[in-house]
Amino acid sequence: MPQEWIYTVVFLAWLAGAAAFVIGLHQMNSPATARDGNRLSAGGMTIAVATTLLYLITREGGLSGIGLAIIVVGFAIGGGLGLYMARTVKMTAMPQLVSLFNAVGGGAAALVAIDDYLKVVGTAEESTVTALFVVLGVVIGCVTFSGSLIASGKLQGLIAGKPIMVPGGRLVTAALALAAVAGFLGLVLGAAGAIGIGVAVKQLVLFAIIAAGLLFGVTMVLPIGGADMPVVISLLNSFTGTAAAMAGFVISNPVLIIAGALVGASGGILTKLMADAMNRSIVNIVAGGFGGAEGTMGTVTGATQVREVGVDDAAIQLAYASSVIIVPGYGLAVAQAQHAVRELAEVLEARGVDVKYAIHPVAGRMPGHMNVLLAEANVPYPQLREMEDINPEFERCDVALVIGANDVTNPAARRPGTPVSGMPILDVDKAKSIVVIKRSMGRGYAGIDNELYGNPKTGMLFADAKEGLTALTAAVKQI
Amino acid sequence: MSPELLASLAIFALAILVGFEVISKVPATLHTPLMSGANSIHGIVLVGGMLIAATADGPLSYLLAFVAMVFGAANVVGGYVVTDRMLQMFKKKPAAAKAPSDGASSAADAA
Questions:
Q1: pTM metric for this prediction
Q2: Could A269 and B51 be called an inter-chain contact, meaning their C-beta atoms sit closer than 8 Å?
Q3: DSSP state of A457
Q4: Interchain contact B58–A (C-beta under 8 A)
């Protein structure tokens, strides 16, 4: 019984891999153990993949030359590309890379399901259950594949970040969903023998389902605005996990089922956490078009009277302050000004100014992204303060320097009845004086005026985040 | 339904519950790395790609398996490496040692 013995060992190794995923994911809940957790998870993956290869080679009949070539060459190409992109990507471009990796993961899950179906269709192995999981895996995998590619393109700027509303787009989306459901019923009932359709028809139906899934992903993500992309990517990440689990059912593999279900569920929770931090519901985000017609109706107050401040004036305020709180936002991430802000902070500290950073949970391009960016620029970790922690300190601080952050500082959020109402904000308006570096009076994501800018304590410094910070640093050095 | 399928469903249900429990009290700082880490875990479809490659028996099958291998491998390798790069940044200690020397030079500039 050597075959059974080998399979038992491989099965146990898969189980060990799955355990490593769970423990690794758990360790990623805390900054102290996160890196070890990720490595543990990678170790589990290595074990699962290596023992699978061993199993395929040693089992009865062995592995054909072509099979081995596909595995080795495919792994080398895919792994090489992944490694290259992961090593060279700029930290500001990281969200779109994660989305790209998510897309190919979903694509792989769909391909596994498709391949299995094409093999079993018309044979005795074709069953209702197989058809059920195949269609689920194919639909979810295809939606994730195209949806994640669109999300990645939006963040990369290849596709306009603003919501793209096609006339009748919702109808098309609904029609595609309907087509997928019809195809689903066709294949499942066909497999059950309830309706008599031939193999060729079944294959055609499968291809129709693939097309519908791919198009659905596109029409689902296009109408969603760029700032919502993190939540969408997280949602699609959860989808990919589910697709992997479905593929696991199709090929009866426990490790795919466990890992897929694990990611499906944890990704769902993470999506909800992210949406909560932005005070949005997931349904609201997926419905899309925020900041368009329905978002703006509450509070268009017209031109807010603002006070402009020059670089030298702002530099003097900062240089003679005893405490400064820096509020970095999306604009800083886009301008890649994380190194420039660290330089300014160091120059100020050298003058004895106490500098802290107020990090809103959704600052940057993704929740937690700002911490990553500032850490990359060598900003000392203790200076980064979370919102609850820093909010009481604003009233004691001399200057709050807001860099490319908008909605997360809007005091209108404290009042009911505005699009940002109820969103947790940084209490920037309580600082003794406020300097805002911003490119223009353009509105933030919520599409409303920021009342902070009209505050008499606020001086607006109109500049690109990076250029503005570099100019300020030079000016402070001159004082 | 076959006993194997029922066992698989039980595993599926329990794994979903584990997934809900394993993430609940994460600081917002770690949301992005955590998402990226979970993203690499579903790269396990690579194993699925290997299994279909082993049973591939025609040109279409070869092609599907090959693309699945490339996709899965990019997901796994890229996912873990980029997550590690993100997490590495949270650990930088020498920053504290570096800051004063920079500060000293700018103080000298100011003087």
A1: 0.81
A2: no
A3: T
A4: no
